[in-house]
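Design a sequence for this backbone.
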């Protein structure tokens, strides 16, 4: 099996009965996949969350990524009943793969989805996994469940493939249609079926990996690479802080070299970069090798909230602020900019650490959901005067404001601004305030 696109052996449009596409899991990954396929095929979107199904049937994306217009002119049905999958020739599984409290892979949702699909699998259907997993998961965990619950044999009675998701929430440029798709089939037939299917909806290339394990590994190192590079930037930030050097200015200078990689320090959370390396580490340790570099990067990135809180206390002393009188304001609590996702948010971790110290904190985030436990959000215009401003997430709404809008939150008294994403230019006069940048 090579990496040259196989011929489109079957024209899906010319079949007497065009195939239905099933998508299991309608979250940040599954929903845009389902919507895209629904432009050209009949799609059945399945999710066990009945509240989510009710919203989708009203053309409402619970994650706020898609507008009502994105739902228009799409041949898609949203259901919680998995028996409808029996009508599908292709079933794409896109459920979350988080980690446990001890940072080990949690594939329970993937297992449940495999069981559910197995119980409702039509003969000769092709099942495609898009969830991020460690190498070997599809063949060692998922396929046995499909076979057990369907009573059939993969590669003969049905086909299985893997095509890792590359959805980037909040990114309007790199959409599902435009991102190159890596695919791998258990058999040549599965491979051909996947090439044919994805070619009908993608504007980007389809890259054929030589095996499912290679495709699984390719996905997991994409985010692991970013995690390691960001950890390097974070460590540089720690070093340059000791040397009283502006890290951002150093990076601007270094970026003048053509092959310098443009990474920057920051908080690493979410459902991908802060999670996927643990899957690779887990599988590596199972095979007898302890990955030192990846492990160190994870440890450093996970320690950043504690470092920021510790630095904040040092800045309070430098400004001679009374800890009992200070009020803290944090701008942004989602794990990244311009999305509502708060999974594994390091900003929220900072909030919890500050509260453990008994500090008063008000939170502002125009994207975060309002129903979060123990989190109360305040609109920017209603923020009270504060002595410490933590600019944690660079949402577009914040970037569109004037610098004076942020300085006004602090008033005329001495204060501290912690700029974690270089939102404030270094040449801005700080008045009585101390500005610290990550």
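Sequence:
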């Amino acid at each position: 099996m090579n990496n040259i696109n196989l011929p489109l052996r079957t024209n899906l449009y010319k079949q007497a009965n065009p195939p239905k596409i099933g998508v299991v899991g309608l979250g940040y990954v599954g929903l845009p996949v389902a919507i895209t396929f629904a432009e050209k095929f009949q799609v059945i979107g399945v999710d066990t969350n009945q509240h989510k199904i009710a919203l989708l049937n009203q053309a409402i994306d619970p994650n706020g990524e898609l507008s009502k217009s994105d739902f228009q002119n799409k041949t898609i049905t949203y259901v919680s009943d998995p028996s409808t999958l029996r009508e599908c020739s292709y079933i794409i599984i896109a459920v979350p793969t988080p980690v446990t409290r001890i940072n080990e892979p949690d594939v329970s949702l993937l297992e449940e989805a495999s069981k559910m699909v197995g119980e409702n699998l039509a003969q000769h259907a092709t099942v495609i996994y898009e969830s991020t997993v460690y190498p070997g998961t599809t063949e060692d965990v998922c396929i046995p469940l499909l076979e057990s619950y369907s009573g059939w044999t993969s590669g003969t009675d049905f086909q299985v493939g893997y095509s890792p998701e590359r959805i980037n929430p909040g990114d309007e440029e790199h959409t599902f249609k435009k991102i190159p798709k890596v695919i791998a089939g258990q058999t040549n037939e599965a491979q051909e079926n996947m090439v044919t299917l994805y070619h009908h909806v993608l504007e980007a290339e389809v890259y054929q990996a030589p095996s499912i394990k290679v495709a699984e590994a390719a996905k997991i190192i994409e985010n692991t690479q970013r995690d390691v590079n960001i950890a390097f930037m974070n460590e540089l930030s720690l070093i340059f802080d000791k040397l009283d050097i502006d890290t951002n200015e150093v990076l601007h200078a270094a970026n003048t070299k053509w092959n310098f990689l443009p990474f920057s320090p920051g908080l690493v959370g979410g459902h991908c970069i802060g999670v996927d390396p643990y899957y690779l580490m887990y599988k590596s340790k199972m095979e007898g090798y302890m990955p030192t570099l990846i492990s160190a990067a994870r440890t450093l990135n996970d320690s950043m909230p504690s470092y920021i809180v510790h630095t904040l206390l040092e800045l309070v002393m430098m400004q001679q602020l009374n800890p009992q009188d200070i009020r803290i304001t944090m701008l942004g609590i989602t794990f990244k900019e311009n999305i509502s996702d708060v999974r594994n948010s390091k900003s929220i971790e900072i909030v919890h650490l500050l509260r453990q110290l008994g500090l008063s904190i008000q939170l502002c985030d125009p994207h975060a959901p309002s129903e979060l436990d123990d989190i109360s959000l305040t609109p920017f215009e209603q923020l009270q005067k504060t002595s410490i401003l933590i600019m944690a997430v660079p949402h577009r709404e914040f970037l569109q404001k004037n610098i004076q809008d942020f300085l006004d939150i602090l008033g005329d008294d001495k204060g501290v601004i912690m700029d974690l994403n270089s939102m404030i230019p270094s040449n801005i006069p700080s008045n009585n305030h101390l500005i610290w940048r990550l």
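The chain has two domains: 12-221, 245-437.
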